[in-house]
Write a structure and sequence with these properties.
By secondary structure, the protein is of the alpha/beta class. It has one domain: 3-Layer(aba) Sandwich (Rossmann fold). The protein has nine helices and five strands. Strands 2-1-3-4-5 form a five-stranded parallel beta sheet, with helices on both faces. Helix 4 runs parallel beside helix 9 and helix 6 runs parallel beside helix 7.
């Protein structure tokens, strides 16, 4: 019994819980409200113009891209004037076909080259801010005069530098969990705020 108790104490998750939540609370307290305001303004402007908001990301950020698109496009209950949100991460046939034929760095920019219209907004999500396929897509959208939003973590990478609007969650490199947690919190802050705005129209 004593041996079992000793092992349980040694492997307790409690110290890690305390450390993780302390870091998360710090990030929440330091959230860049001005940058969130700017993102909201860009999204509302796209809605007013009837333009699309196109989300992209890899791995966990791909999931966040899909989550953000559904929350913006459907969760806000836009009624007669919806947010035209879509994610380029959701069609496996397209993603694998483009990756196979042209390379993974082309999976988003090739989609944008045939579907992006003037006025559309590209919303790029990346923890590192250095994923090549994300940077290729943002560079392409910028070259077409489309507005770009970057949601990043760590030191922001190149994404933070090249986007028209940057929302950065500063963390130590490799803290994917904290970055992805914060990106989802930002998603829910933005979408819940937009839902309230639309309900008041």
């Amino acid at each position: 019994m004593g041996k079992h108790t000793q092992t349980s104490v040694a492997t307790s998750v409690s110290p890690h819980c305390d450390d993780y939540t302390r870091k998360l609370i710090g990030l929440l307290e330091d959230l860049d409200h001005a940058a969130i305001d700017e993102v909201v303004r860009v999204l509302l402007d796209a809605r007013d113009r009837g333009s699309r908001i196109v989300f992209i990301g890899n791995g966990g950020s791909a999931s966040t891209a899909s989550h953000f698109a559904i929350d913006i496009g459907i969760g806000t209950k836009g009624g007669d004037k919806p947010f035209r949100a879509t994610s380029l991460t959701d069609n496996n046939a397209i993603l694998t076909g483009l990756a196979n034929d042209f390379g993974y760095d082309q999976v988003f920019v090739r989609q944008l080259s045939v579907s992006m219209l003037p006025g559309d907004v590209l919303f790029a999500i990346s923890a590192s801010g250095n994923s090549r396929n994300i940077l290729e897509a943002v560079t392409f959208a910028n070259s077409r005069g489309n507005h770009t939003i970057g949601l990043s973590g760590f030191d922001g990478g190149k994404l933070r530098e090249i986007c028209g609007t940057s929302l950065h969650v500063p963390t130590e490199k490799g803290d994917y969990g904290l970055v992805e947690d914060m990106h989802l919190v930002i998603n829910h802050i933005i979408t819940s705020h937009l839902t309230k705005l639309i309900a008041g129209e």
